[in-house]
Amino acid sequence: MAELHDLTAVEQARGIRSGELSPVELTEHYLARLDRLDDTLGAFITRTPEIARKQAAEAEGEAAAARRAGRELPPLYGVPVPVKDLNQVAGVRCTMGSRALAEYVPDVDDHVVTKLRAGGTILLGKTNTPEFGLPCYTENGVAPPARTPWDLARSAGGSSGGAAAAVAGGLAPVAHASDGGGSIRIPASVCGLYGIKPSRGRISGGPLLHDVTGLSTSGPLARTVADAATLLDVMAGPMPGDPYAAPALPPGETFASYARREPGRLRIAVLTQPPVPDVTLHPDCLAATADTAALLTGLGHQVEELALPADDGIRLAFTRAWSVMAAIRPVPPAGEELLMPLSRYLRGRGAEVAGTDFARAMYAFRALGQSVADGLMPADGGYDVLLSPTVAAPPVAVGALRDDADPQAEFAAIGAFTPFTPLYNATGQPAVNVPLQWNAEGLPIGVMLGGRYGDEATLIALSAQLEQARPWAARTPSVW
């Protein structure tokens, strides 16, 4: 008999609506797995069992009342969804992965948390993240490292490494995550998950910590396309004060509905040359991309190789913007000495960026987005989807990218590991990691699909087609 964590989030929600599954029973199942496995995986910074049990009891009563009245419930009602510790939940500490904020407890919810509450999801806790989400690994001074369940000596990636470790290890059915330079797609790749970085403005970043660069967004991590699309439905939608708003779906449509549709014949460009210079791709990542291209061709799509000239200008613009964002993170004056070397390095560098140089970085992002929209992916032609490796190498060992003695070299190594992902943060386009491939060592090797701005629907439909052609969710690590 399958255990509760073998069920998808959509199946769990269906069982709660029908009365075949209890939110209390489901929550207790995951809390027990947290007690047993979290110290090994490093998935959570803060667990919230009291909140989870209270919310589950309320959800159980409301689900029973809804059945009696014939009322519909939100699509993931009663399903546990942890929140990344870069986002604020009122009354729950929010460390942002930093010792400087180890005791900080906000009194307001971020808008995405408001959406999750309205959707009736259950908060198991706050998932692990590196300090301020700055690097692509999840190692900090407040919790153990987040490890991929596929090899506990290796990193779960970052900055949503805790969220990915939780879902891949069966500690949560789905998870809230966020992505400013690849932070959903990177851990999805190294943990064998499906992750969506939505279009800029699809999910609110307010009310307090708006990303003025437009690089960052919340998004879902899940084992299946349908689960991720359903969680996107729960989190999406504009909120008061939002500076951006992605194009809405047609009335009555949901992202989950596109996971049940054929994508049609698409024109797909394959990118294997990194868009930044001096980066070498691991053969496993090249092989995974080539195999996916062949699979897409076999499914009837028009697939073409495309080489884009490497341009160091975008890397420079991203570094400036990333440094400024690090510099304005809210650190108490007495907390600076508690920060990790990379954070101090980036904050120092960001403090030296002139306003005109920051504006030039923003213009570089907008120009890149315009170039892609007009020349590469125009709505009346061009490519529908871009396929590339997600990262440049298989999962790396815990500590392999960290260099406290030389944070400048560390930041360069991070960029070399993630040459493809920041493109879509700069342009605001949606992108997904698809977990189609595992290498000879049994490690997941993700591939990335990028779409036109506002067109998550096509990526979801295409991902579901790939999932049907080569299912992956039944493949689980030994800790499962």
List strands and helices in order, with pairings.
Layout: H1 9-18, H2 23-41, E1 44-47, H3 49-69, E2 83-84, H4 111-118, E3 125-127, H5 161-168, E4 174-179, H6 185-191, E5 194-197, E6 217-222, H7 225-235, H8 255-258, E7 267-270, H9 283-298, E8 302-305, H10 312-327, H11 341-351, H12 355-376, E9 385-389, H13 407-417, H14 422-427, E10 431-438, E11 444-451, H15 456-469
Parallel strand pairs: 2-3, 7-8, 7-9
Antiparallel strand pairs: 1-3, 4-6, 5-6, 5-10, 9-11, 10-11
Helix pairs in contact: 2-3, 5-6, 10-11, 10-12
Uncertain regions spanning at least 5 consecutive residues: none
Rg calc: 21 Å
Mean pLDDT: 97
What's the helix-strand series? Answer: HHEHEHEHEHEEHHEHEHHHEHHEEH
What would the principal axes of the Cα set say about the shape? globular
Strand order in space, largest sheet? 4-6-5-10-11-9-7-8
Number of helices: 15
Q: What would you call the structural class? A: alpha/beta
Helix content: 25-40%
DSSP E strands, number: 11
Biggest pleated-sheet summary: 8 strands, mixed
Give the N-to-C terminal Cα separation: 14 Å
Beta-strand percent range: 5-15%
